[in-house]
Known about the structure:
The protein has helices spanning 67-84, 104-109, 134-137, 198-210, 241-255, 266-281, 297-307, 310-340, and strands at residues 24-33, 40-41, 44-45, 47-51, 59-65, 111-112, 118-119, 123-125, 128-133, 138-144, 153-158, 164-171, 175-181, 186-194, 224-234, 288-292. A hairpin with a 2-residue loop joins strand 2 and strand 3. It is an alpha+beta fold and 341 residues long. It contains eight helices and 16 strands. It has one domain. The protein is globular. The model has no long low-confidence stretch (mean pLDDT 88).
Amino acid sequence: MALLKTVDAKFFHTEIPYKPMGKYAHFLTVRVTESYPLFQTDGELNKARVRAGIEEKNTISRLSMFKRKQSTPERLVGRELLRTYGLVKPEECEYNVAFGMDNPDCIIYGFAIGDSGSEKSKVVVDTAFSITAFDESHENFTLNAPYENGTMAAKGEKKADGKLDGNIGSVTARINQQDHIRPQVFFPSIVTLKDPTEASFLYVFNNILRTRHYGAQTTRTGRVRNELIGVVFADGEIVSNLRWTQAIYDQMKTAGTLKAPDPLDEDDVAEAAKTAVQNLMSEEFIVHTDFIGDDFKPLLAEVKTLTASEDGIRSILDQANKEAKAYYGVHIDKKAKAGAK
């Protein structure tokens, strides 16, 4: 039974194929920070020195959001839903410890368990780059770790004779400085699903819409909202995140909507992102069907209606689970049993 009425069934497989079959669903996402997230390696924010635009040839430093910083939070949201609806038990599948191998998360996002087997991810995510330059997009904060009394000084310091003196206090040295990404910094990102079934398409779509925290310290900061501006179905991969970002930069510079040091206006970014990707898709040498702008609204509305009800989300998860188990039984379990003989 088809779950979607706004998309032709020809874009989906009826079951998960074992070999690449040349169908791609590309989710055009603009990730916008809503707090002070950290995308860092070795204590420093990730950044890259690149050309500002396609036409604008000046070189600037941009913040980088590595692929694992994007895909891991999204698949964890999906795993949480699978547990919520009783399709995965915690003891049966533990992320990066003991994969269950037969559920939608493992089959769609992949796994590797040494000699026990592996499955390549069908979700392709590449590094995303901020539209604005590094200097305009980050801020340095001084952090501290106060004692339980709410101050930076602790009482009950030991004297030279080893006895406690409640009047002697010491100021903690637990003070640090850390660069954080500012709110309203935009990261255009294309999430690609290879050889989608309708259920796997909706599963990944829902994970992108639901994920709210990215980067380090996700329980305290890292709030990011994903704004989808379209979906492209194609028989190959499309433009890179960097080129899309550079095209957006050119659009906004031409329109005069780059207003440093003020943050970018979200409506200006959305309009530039749509125009830029439409222009880039017109230059592609692949067969593609684009749902962008007004053409995307009916699909987005249908998906949101479907995922907003318990019956709707359960129907997606149940179908994705059936497909994953069927794939596991034919392509993973049989292979494992054959190798054990």
